[in-house]
Description:
This protein is α/β, with parallel strands linked by helices. The protein has 2 domains: about 10-200, Aldolase class I (TIM Barrel); about 205-280, no CATH class. The chain is built from 13 helices and 11 strands. The radius of gyration is 18 Å and the shape is globular.
Amino acid sequence: MKDVAGLLGTKYPVLQGGMAWVAEYRLAAAVSNGGGLGIIGTGAADGDFVLDQARKTRGLTDKPFGVNIVMLSPFADDVVKACIEEKVPVVTTGAGNPGKYIEDLKAAGIVVIPVVPSAALAKRMERAGADAVIAEGGEAGGHIGDISTFCLVPQVADAVSIPVIAAGGIADGRGAAAAFVLGARGVQIGTRFLAAKECVISQAYKDRVIAAGDTDTVVTGRFTGHPVRVLRNKLTREILMKEKEEISFEEFEEMMSGTLRKAVVDGDADYGSMMAGQSAGLVKKEQSAAEIIEDIMSGIMEYYKG
Length: 306
């Protein structure tokens, strides 16, 4: 099985999650400069956004970086074209099947790594030509699947011959080492990078992540088919109460509209959607992206020494 760092061209087999509204060029460049793979999150942004972000990232680092493409985005076609035009080194994908794009992306020399919530989809992505897969468990922040990382990763590793990157619930060297024991060859980390000094989210959002305990996240929107894990606040209490009353999809969408921006930009800790994984309870302080990566790697080494 290929080495993930070798595949990515990075010092370490550590990827930063492509979090919409959060993972922009400054964080991506800082992670890449720190030895990992920084990833620009696109969310529902268009191709021009990607071109701008990729060029700004290159202005801050000469290391490889990636772009995350959301398959549900109405601009997915434009974002793919922008990645090809800009010759982005790595593309990760989420929220859907990127099969129709893989051939064109690879023809442009781009490493393609889909996020998968099941072994079945991992096998489909291998057959479609993916270079690796990210097996993301339900502990992760943001949009999630049903299977836990602990159960998902070894089953995906058994199902495919391409490298498996573990995601969901990993925030330190212990978690990364456990993922490697389960068959992963790399890890993707999102929640801990929310507390990176280079992360541009509001200080109120960062403070809530740092203060979070092990039970401070909750999943909303399961009935929609696209559940989301976030930190508990007044917004989540109201949504969960409404869900018990069998809220309609339209009413749910109205309640959620603009809430991620409220958290990231406005610092609204009560009614902002503060996406975070269950690993938030392991995030204790604000650090630079490079310090976070070094801490994770040293933790892995301590595990193997022990």
